[in-house]
Amino acid sequence: MSMVLNEEQRLLQDTIDDFLSTNAPIDQLRRLRDTHDYKGYSIILWNQLTELGIPSILMPEEFGGFGFGFEGLGAVMQSMGRNLTASPLFSTVVLGASAIRLGGTASQQQTLLPNIAVGQLTLALAIDETHHHQPINTAVRLKEQNGQLSISGEKVFVLDGHSADKLVVVVRSSGNAGDTKGLSLVLVDSNAAGLQINRIQYMDGRNAANIIFNNVRVKRDQLIGELGSAHTILQQVLDRGVVAMSAEMLGGCQEVFDRTLQYLREREQFGVKIGTFQALQHRAAQMFCQLERSKSAVLSALSSLDKNSPDISLQASLAKTLINDCYQHVSNEAIQMHGGAGITDELDIGLFLKRARVSLQILGDSDYHKNRYAQLMGY
Amino acid sequence: METTKQFRLDIRNWLIANCPESQRQPIIKDQQIWAGRRRTFYCGDAKLWFERMRDQGWTAPSWPTQYGGGGMSLEQAKILNQEMKALGCRPALYDIGLWMFGPTLLEYGTEEQKQEHIPKIVRGEIRWAQGYSEPSAGSDLASIKTRAEDKGNHFIVNGTKMWTTQGDKSDWIFSLVRTDHQAPKQQGISFLLIDMATEGVVARPMELINGDHEFCQTFFDDVKVPKSNLVGNINEGWSVAKALLKYERNMMSIMSSIVEKEEGDIVAIAKRYIGLDSSGKLANNGLRAQLSEHLMRAQGDALSALRLYQQHKSGVVDRGLGLTMKYLSTSEQQHKDELLLAIMGNRGLSWHDQTFSISEKKTVKNWAYNKAHTIAGGTSEIQLNIIANKALQLPV
Lengths: 379, 396
Known about the structure:
The complex is a heterodimer.
Chain A: H1 7-23, H2 26-34, H3 43-51, H4 69-83, H5 89-103, H6 106-117, E1 123-126, E2 141-145, E3 148-159, E4 166-172, E5 183-189, E6 195-201, E7 207-218, E8 223-224, H7 231-266, E9 268-269, E10 272-273, H8 278-307, H9 312-337, H10 349-361, H11 366-377
Parallel strand pairs in A: 1-4
Antiparallel strand pairs in A: 2-3, 3-7, 4-5, 5-8, 6-7, 9-10
Chain B: H1 2-18, H2 44-56, H3 74-87, H4 96-108, H5 111-122, E1 128-131, E2 147-150, E3 154-165, E4 172-178, E5 189-195, E6 201-206, E7 215-226, E8 230-231, H6 237-263, H7 266-274, H8 285-314, H9 319-344, H10 358-369, H11 380-391
Parallel strand pairs in B: 1-4
Antiparallel strand pairs in B: 2-3, 3-7, 4-5, 5-8, 6-7
């Protein structure tokens, strides 16, 4: 396992690049955005991806999966980033299925995972309670009264929460906001009584939901892992999510950078290609340096997930911070270097700018991860 | 796999058995063992450690054994390096010949030249200096004016070189000299080896902003140099010079990491100078965030170095990645130096005054000295030009 793809992984990357650029070009995202498509992704595309086996990419070969691991997933996420592909892969497979794989009972795994693999079940992770990601501050309660468990409270900005079949809900069964102890994971049907789901559309055309839990009844077998001790599992799920999202951002950032370079090579002003101007060359070279540095962090984090490295949380925060800052910078520069054309909706550059901002917030912005990194490093 | 494991184990055992405890402490600049006729050892352990490494050929582990090198593959040399780092073993020898000139001579030199010079480099007998820049030729290196006139079986060299590192302590200098005045800039340059003991060579130290006198201006006044000291063909020295610059960039990355060891752990320094609040966080939020930013960028660069190594091993090398390393690592070193000063506050403003500790003074001197990192070995601006043209294919 390394930061250089082997033959098999390269083949996977080429296949998925070909497939997505043909079947899920950026025009598809525009259509979804402009028609306010309810799901926010193409169900046809998700079926096609399922036929390719993408939902089971993380499953080991003995469970009928590909065994490509996180390095393979990283290749797919990068390609989705390049093509701005909207799909339930992140919410369902990276977050939801990981929670079930890591914390679920044998019976939960057997009933749920095969359905995910064939594209018949989508999931969403209901975690945030404010507009900033801060999982440890979870306050929504899992109450127990007369032996009956129930959830009341609100989860906000739940990615794909409006379209998922089931929700993996992070709740507090004991302790107070800020405690690592007392967190639980609960699987809730999206049509359960007492749920009120309000869809939110983001600037990048993707969707999330604010979800109100009004005394939603929960049975014991809906718990994922032990009551009150979900923190370790949650941490692992979030680290996977952070790294996978970083991989998507890496792909998007590379694409918008490549498009900008192409523009610098072609666009003429003052009778010369603007790419000959040293002011622009140096900024482009600096972006490249930042991008290569971020890429190393992301590829290393993917490989560390496959190796189950003990420092994965550190690596995840490292990768997300570097690629957050890089994508933000590169997408801004991309607009500036495209000049007037860059601020028209006709060009795709603005779509990358918006995706960058949305993904920046997903599972923690740079401030969140810098703080987490500092905590993990002990200062 | 098994043989690699065994190899690593053998190396580790050898190092444990042969590296004296005193040579497993973080290296201090004054205690570095530099090559040369005037080589000195600050203590017996340092001499012992150097001699043991030298006798294995491990001062230059990947060079061929016929010239005294260790004969290791790149992978084996990396294992040696990793094990030395893990055990905290100091580098046994410091020399520009070892880092830059030797690899270039192995690539471009004649058999006679290799036999004459390489073993002396491995054994640390000769200290090499670099004669590239001149008062009017910095980034525009090809505009050098130092001339070598053809006098049949020898050249007569006249001119001035700048930034000769420790020129007054060096034995030989590899120099760029102009051998054809009519040819366009880069085509009339030759690569010449000059013994600094020759009559007419004078190296005069210059004081730098850190107070040191590491660099010299070197003057050549009718210096007689045998023709056999020419590396590569006459008037084709530019390609040799460029090959060497590639190694110089690597060296600059090595040098940045050597300095890092001197100051110790920046996290520990931050804790000491800033303190922790009741929740165990550094008591200054801004500096705490800056520290994370620095550590993350530095870690990203370390991972790039690892990725580049993995690429070399797999045979699929991405040229652009390597080009980013000098620019990134040298500017990150400067970020770190600035951050150290910020962490130390007024205690980071030392010069001679006794109020300040030795390590505080050292940190400040390093801060000043490391301003050279983004200038030497190709300025950051030149690096960006190269990246823009070679890696990004932006039009010239």
